[in-house]
Amino acid sequence: IRRRLPRQRASGQCSTRVGAVVARRAVDLPVREASVGTTIAIPGAVVEEDARQKKADQYRLLLFNDPLNKREFVARCLMTVCLIKEGDAFQVMMKAHKDGVGIVGTYQFETAEAYCEGLKAKGLSVDIIPVDGDN
């Protein structure tokens, strides 16, 4: 069995031709080193930190008045998607119908987001907002 040896290039790199593709050894490839960032504290200087907004613990699911869908359909969607009892779903729907917006409930973020997406898929106008610590 004859073995093909790698050819030496003028640049000193070895490569083996396989058809029209040139294969290189991993040690021949350029390496990008990670940049090192050093923070130096200067006495008396004010340190500014990136304050990321904390995610709220609870979120309100809001239902907006919808002139396109019938009231019974809206109440039925609230019952099926959000698992609300019939009487509560009717009250939320009527609040949204009369006042323009009704609060479906207060939930954890994942639950509120899932209910919001489910109701939007049914064609309802809904949104979630974070609950302040004051309310």
Strand order of the largest sheet: 1-2-3
Classify the beta-strand content into a percent band: 15-25%
**Poorly predicted sequence stretches spanning 5 or more consecutive residues:** none
Give the SSE order as H and E letters: EEEEHHEHE
In helices, the fraction of residues equals 25-40%
CATH class of the domain at 68-130: Alpha Beta
Terminal Cα span? 82 Å
Structural class: alpha+beta
Shape: elongated
Major pleated sheet? 3 strands, antiparallel
* Overall CATH architecture of the domain at 68-130: 2-Layer Sandwich
Beta-strand segment tally: 6
Count of runs of 4 or more consecutive helical residues: 3
SSE inventory with pairings:
Layout lengths: L6 E2 L5 E5 L2 E4 L34 E6 L6 H11 L4 H14 L1 E7 L1 H13 L4 E5 L5
Antiparallel strand pairs: 1-2, 2-3, 4-5, 4-6
Quick structural summary:
The chain is an alpha+beta fold. It has helices at residues 71-81, 86-99, 109-121; strands at residues 7-8, 14-18, 21-24, 59-64, 101-107, 126-130. The chain starts with 6 loop residues before the first strand and ends in a 5-residue tail after the last strand.
Please provide a written account of the structure.
- The structure is a single chain.
- This protein is α+β, with helices and mostly antiparallel strands.
- The chain has a domain at 68-130: Ribosomal Protein L30, Chain: A (2-Layer Sandwich), CATH 3.30.1390.
- Helix content is 28%, strand content 21%.
- The chain has three helices and six strands, in the order ββββααβαβ.
- It has a three-stranded antiparallel beta sheet, with no helix packed on it.
- It is elongated, with a radius of gyration of 31 Å.
- The relative contact order is 0.17.
- InterPro entries: ClpS, ClpS_core, Ribosomal_bL12_C/ClpS-like.
- This is Adaptor protein ClpS core domain-containing protein.
- Residues 54-122 form the Adaptor protein ClpS core domain.
- It holds the Pfam family ClpS.
